[in-house]
Amino acid sequence: MTVNDRRIAIIGAGPVGLVLALRLATLGLPSVVLEAGADISEELRASTFHPPSLDMLDSLGVAAPLIEQGLVTPTWQIRRHEDGARAVFDLSVLKDDTAHPYRLQAEQWKLSRLILAKLAAEHAGTVELRFNARLDTVVHGADHVALSGEGFEPFETPYAVGCDGARSVIRRAMGLDFAGDTYPETTILATTPFPFQEVFEGLSNVNYIWTQHPAFSGTFSLLRVPGLWRASLHTAPGESVEQALEPAAIERKLQAIHPKSTPYEVPDLRPYRIHQRIVENYRIGRLMLAGDSAHLNSPSGGMGMNGGIQDAMELAGTLAPVWRGEAEASLLDRYTRRRQPVAAREIIAQADRNRARMRETDPVRRAELLADLQATAADPVKAREHLLRSSMITGLRAASQIM
Q1: What pTM was estimated for this model as a whole?
Q2: Which residues are CB-neighbours of 364 under 8 A, at least 6 positions away?
Q3: Scanning 90, 155, 273, 341, which has its CA 20 to 30 A from the CA of 297?
Q4: Short-list 216, 228, 237, CA closest to 269
Q5: Which residues pair with 112 in a beta bridge?
Q6: pLDDT tens-digit series, residues 382-395
């Protein structure tokens, strides 16, 4: 990097930052990606790719190899654990709306690895990747942004984009309030190679499940990725997070899902809090935000990473004509107009409704909700409308009409 580098600075080499770098490169725009970590993170994070995200990734040439490494998932379901009653949503009804009428179950790091390889093979002269590069200071000027920190020489850039998550340095430099709430519960994500699909009739690869078992606080989920099931567990009433993380507690919860004579193998375990937060403006001057740096939501419905990928694609397409001098910088305000309402209405609010539905504990109300969902799933028109929204297509179509 030079002291005055004519590259767009992208902070964060997660899937959002890397999709942004790749899309900018295909449009001929150079970038430098700063990542505080030594390598791509392979921690337990997102694992669901929705149809429109796959369509976008296909345009970048990475959908097909990602699909080869994942599980094509044509249905998802909401299920009652005690009797197996369920509402199953079949994404094939979207066959005329998307080239990928299914969810793909694959760990997000697989996408990141694919993009890294593609950048190295095809865009080495356009995209510079810097690991162990921790941004500390951002000085926002009228015609540049000055960046400094650990692991890289200070430099100036025309634009800087924060794809650096919930604790974004770029967002802090923008002076934005990250308004919202933190839910009271802690979720514990545990993986196991146990084949749940062999013991539960009709299980999908994505299952949101009500239960009355006292080991849970009313709900858990089972999401499958190649070779593993990811179980989202919650603390039981009166159980602290520390207690819930103890091996005996994890074993007790997994045995409550399916009793077996031998202990469960649990190779990975991660607790996390759930937030719903969003900034009002995704762009101030030469600073912009995408993904978790701009919005956080409940993982129920798998929309967080997908929303970030969609942010990145929209931002790249908006930046390109400004960078080339074909449009005024004010065009960049359209990025907020298109993406912020989608995140607020179609991602955060929808994820909050999904969470509230699964946190319902009254058996009568659960039965009513399940009956309504089954009726929706059985009606092709209603099912398509529901899946267009839950798959994030409705929001994208509405956003595309905003000028």
Answers
A1: 0.96
A2: none
A3: 90
A4: 228
A5: none
A6: 999 999 999 999 99
